[in-house]
Write a structure and sequence with these properties.
The protein is of the alpha/beta class. It has one domain: 3-Layer(aba) Sandwich (Rossmann fold), CATH 3.40.50. It is 36% helix and 8% strand.
């Protein structure tokens, strides 16, 4: 159920173990062939599919479209929150619902740059409420939940998320094909090895002149549907674990 459609007495009547989902995404460049709202479009579609499957068992806040996108600021059209400000925003969203008595709060992230701030926010808020063993605060990125879409469609070439890549381009082709530019004008931008397993600070021009990473040329709407199904399955499985949590244990 969507928070924006409820009246406050309806929210007040909910069981406080109802998981509250906070979709977070971005508005940033996605190469020459994809719209700047790509991450938000895809996250919203995923959330709509989760609502269709899970109904009133989860409460879904409106998507927060402004993300941490400083590494894309060399490209016009990108909007980005300062990293500390963004972490404080996420902390504030959790505090709002903790003050209303809700105990299971989940960030559902659809932008790579939000991954670290989301983890930092749930860490900070948990320390603030360190005596509350009944709180479950989670941050997840939807493509990191174990889905393997290539097992459903072997023509899917990628094995990890890129940027305006085969995966993202396919998913936008599935839901908003009119927003995708000619793929023949793109090329294969290699993922590379940025000193892994270390974590390297980077900006997008370090990696790609065009602003995309991966090979969008093999994208299709049919692959997009397989990707959405795979990511929705994995997210639903995780959220069912949140619902089934006993309220006190470390394991879930």
């Amino acid at each position: 159920m969507k928070l924006e459609n409820l009246k406050w007495p309806e929210v007040a009547a909910l069981h406080r173990d109802t998981p509250v989902l906070f979709p977070i995404a971005a508005l940033e460049q996605h190469g020459r062939h994809m719209p700047v709202f790509t991450d938000s479009l895809l996250t919203n579609e995923l959330i709509d599919r989760i609502e269709n499957r899970m109904g009133d068992s989860v409460l879904i806040a409106p998507l927060t479209w402004l993300g941490n996108s400083h590494h894309h600021l060399d490209f016009p059209g990108t909007l980005s929150a300062e990293p500390r400000l963004y972490i404080d925003l996420l902390n504030g969203l959790m505090e709002n619902f903790i003050s209303h008595g809700f105990r299971r709060l989940v960030f559902i992230n659809g932008h790579g740059g939000n991954d670290v701030p989301g983890k930092q926010a749930v860490f900070e808020t948990r320390q603030k409420h360190r005596t509350r063993k009944d709180l479950l605060l989670l941050s997840l990125t939807y493509w990191n939940l174990g889905a393997e879409p290539w097992t459903k469609d072997p023509s899917i070439q990628q094995r990890v998320m890129g940027h305006a890549c085969e995966w993202e381009t396919s998913m936008v082709l599935r839901i908003r094909p009119e927003l995708v530019g000619p793929l023949d004008d793109t090329d294969d931008v290699a993922f590379g090895n940025p000193f892994e397993p270390a974590s390297r600070g980077w900006t997008m021009p370090d990696r790609s002149e065009s602003g995309h990473v991966g090979d969008p040329r093999s994208a299709t709407a049919e692959k997009g549907e397989i990707l959405f199904q795979s990511f929705t399955d994995a997210l639903e499985k995780l959220l069912n674990r949140v619902i089934a949590w006993d309220g006190v244990s470390w394991d879930g």
